[in-house]
């Protein structure tokens, strides 16, 4: 995992684990890596890894079981997907609209590009990619 300066490292780790939950790489009820294992694999301070796991629990994506560690909550993938959708609409989509205005791209052009991208997939290229 490569870190950037846009947000704290623990948030980037938590977001990556949440993305894995949304993609299906992690399943509901699955045990998450321990803070120590996560720290070693990502080459970060164990406190940073522990903070990432605690952040996931605070957000409802994971749950902590005393003495056994963190697990992906039963509704964790749905919670993480909802968070990602909310963030897309509040942060990414407004930036896209600004770029569209700058470049003179209308909604019709975007709709045509979307139809072309999802042709034959029932409207979801991402769903098609997950089943491969």
Describe the structure.
With 132 residues, the protein is mainly α. The protein has 2 domains: 9-76, Winged helix-like DNA-binding domain superfamily/Winged helix DNA-binding domain (Arc Repressor Mutant, subunit A, Orthogonal Bundle); 90-130, no CATH class. The chain has helices spanning 9-23, 35-42, 46-59, 76-103, 107-118, 125-130, and strands spanning 62-65, 69-72. A two-stranded antiparallel ribbon has the order 1-2. A hairpin with a 3-residue loop joins strand 1 and strand 2. Helix 1 crosses helix 3 (46-59), helix 1 packs across helix 4 and helix 2 (35-42) packs across helix 3. Residues 127-132 have low confidence and may be disordered.
Which helices and strands occur, and which strands form pairs?
Layout: H1 9-23, H2 35-42, H3 46-59, E1 62-65, E2 69-72, H4 76-103, H5 107-118, H6 125-130
Antiparallel strand pairs: 1-2
Helix pairs in contact: 1-3, 1-4, 2-3
Looking at the overall shape, the CATH architecture of the largest domain is Orthogonal Bundle
Q: What shape does the CA trace take?
A: elongated
Biggest sheet strand line-up: 1-2
CATH homology-level superfamily of the largest domain: Winged helix-like DNA-binding domain superfamily/Winged helix DNA-binding domain
Q: Tell me the radius of gyration.
A: 18 Å
Instruction: Please identify the top-level CATH class of the largest domain.
Output: Mainly Alpha
CATH fold annotation of the largest domain: Arc Repressor Mutant, subunit A
Number of domains: 2
β content, as a range?
Answer: 5-15%
How many DSSP H or I helices? 6
Helical amount: 55-70%
Q: What structural category do the secondary elements indicate?
A: mainly alpha
Q: Would you count the extended β strands for me?
A: 2
Order of helices and strands: HHHEEHHH
What is the end-to-end distance? Answer: 23 Å
Q: If you average the pLDDT, what whole number results?
A: 91
For the biggest sheet, the summary is:
2 strands, antiparallel
Low-confidence runs of at least 5 consecutive residues: 127-132
